[in-house]
Amino acid sequence: MNFWEYLGSRHQQLLADAYQHASAVFQCMVVATVLGVLIGVAAYRSEWAGNLATTATSTVLTIPALAMIGLLVPVVGLGVAPTVTALTLYGLLPVVRNAIVGLRGVDPALVDAARGIGMSGPARLLRVELPLAWPPILTGIRVATQMLMGIAAIAAYASGPGLGNEIFRGIASLGSRNALNQVLAGTLGIIVLALLFDAAYVLIGRLTIPRGIRV
C-alpha cells in the first residue's frame, strides 16, 4: 500500500486526529495567552519582576517534553489533562517575553498624554498600552503555536489526543508494511496544521493591527 492509498483508507481517523491536535493546541494557546499577558502586565514595570517572569517561564522549556509529561501523569493521570497542562506551560515563554517587551516599548509620551486627559491606570493599559503592544504579543503567540504543534505530538506518550498517536503507532511497528506511512501521515498533518494556524495569525494581524503600526 503506497502513501496515497493509506491516506484514502485512513482519512476519517486522520481527520479526527488532526481535529483533536488542532483543538488541543488552540485551547492551550488561549489559556497560555491569557496567563502570559497577565504575567507580562504584572511584571513589565519592574526590572527584577520582568527578569523573574522570563526566567521562570524559560526554565520550563529546559524540561524535555517526555520528562514533563512523565512527571505530570502521576499527578493528573493519563489522557487530556497532562497534555493541556504541559502545552500551556510550554506556551508561556514567548507570550510573556513579548508582552513585557511590547509593553516596555510603548512611547512614554503617549502614556503621559493619556494620563493628561484623565485616563485611569486600567484605562491607559487597555486603551493605549496593550493595543500598541499587540504586534509583538501576536508574534509571541505565533511562535508559541508553532512550537506547541510539534510538542503536542509527544502527548501520545500519555494517551493524549492528536496526530502524535499516528506517529507513535508507526514507530512502534517499524518494519511493518504501513509503519512509514503512519509516521509520514502524522508528520505531514502537523506541518499542514502549523501552516494553517500561521496563515490565520497573519490574517488576524492584518485585521487587528492598524496599518500605521504595521509600517
Describe the structure.
- With 215 residues, the protein is mainly alpha-helical.
- The mean pLDDT is 89.
- The chain starts with a helix and ends with a helix.
- 82% of the residues lie in helices and 0% in strands.
Q: What is the element layout, followed by pairings?
A:
Layout: H1 3-43, H2 47-61, H3 65-76, H4 80-104, H5 108-116, H6 121-151, H7 164-172, H8 179-208, H9 211-214
Helix pairs in contact: 1-2, 1-4, 1-6, 1-8, 2-4, 3-4, 4-6, 5-6, 6-8, 7-8
> Unreliable segments (pLDDT under 50, ≥5 consecutive)?
none
Mean pLDDT metric:
89
Helix-strand string: HHHHHHHHH
The fraction of residues assigned to DSSP E strands is under 5%
For the largest beta-sheet, the strand count, sense and barrel status come to:
none
Chain oligomer state: single chain
Distance between the termini: 51 Å
The structure class reads: mainly alpha
How many DSSP helices?
Answer: 9
Number of strands: 0
Instruction: Round the Cα radius of gyration to an integer and report it.
Output: 20 Å
